Amino acid sequence: MEYGEFRINIFLITLIMTLFLTSATFTSNNNIERNAVNMWTGTIFVRADGSVYPPDAPIETHDNVTYVICGNVTSPSDGIVIEKDNVVIDGRGFTFIYGQGTPSSKGVYLSGRINVTIRGVTISGFCCGIYINRSSNCVIIRCNVTANEGYGIKLDHSLNNIISKN
């Protein structure tokens, strides 16, 4: 290999590495900006009729059975209140964070429900992370429930529920 060919090879390697590092930096910054944009504030309600309130909440459903969280949520009270039976709440790793508000706040709250699955949600900073009251046949799976003031997961007067891989 001659000196000129060697310099061209070094130049090409340097160019490829520069393009790779620039691309990785852009992707990393883009993810940070996307996560900041996805922060939504309020309480999400999954109503008994399958509707979601408020309409701009970061949650989607196409069948009124599976509800997919589409962004991080900060809430001054409860994160999500489930008023419907036979549903799946798929967090896809998004986070519910308690802001400032009531001391009895809950990240996920359901009362009097049957057959509700909560999976893949990260919940932090509430009085109670997940509160299941007078409900049965519910599943809590693969949720990250940390740094809540009172209970991480609390079941009251509830039967035949499964808590797994949290």
Could you name the key traits of this structure?
single chain; 6-stranded mixed beta sheet; alpha/beta; 17 strands; 166 residues; 2 domains; 1 helix; globular
Summarize, please.
With 166 residues, the chain is of the alpha/beta class.
Task: Explain what you see.
21% of the residues lie in helices and 37% in strands. With 166 residues, the chain is α/β, with parallel strands linked by helices. The chain has 2 domains: 37 residues; 125 residues. Strands 3-2-7-10-13-16 form a 6-stranded mixed beta sheet, with no helix packed on it. About 8% of the residues have low confidence.
- Overall body shape: globular
User: What is the strand content?
Assistant: 35-45%
The oligomeric state of the chains shown is single chain
Helix and strand pattern: HEEEEEEEEEEEEEEEEE
The Rg value, from CA coordinates, equals 22 Å
What percent of the residues sit in helical stretches (DSSP H or I)?
Answer: 10-25%
Q: What would the average pLDDT be, to the nearest integer?
A: 85
Number of beta strands: 17
Query: What is the overall number of helices?
Result: 1
Q: Ends: how far apart?
A: 59 Å
Structural class assignment = alpha/beta
Largest sheet: 6 strands, mixed
Adjacency order of strands in the biggest sheet: 3-2-7-10-13-16
Q: Enumerate the spans where pLDDT stays under 50 for 5 or more consecutive residues.
A: 24-36
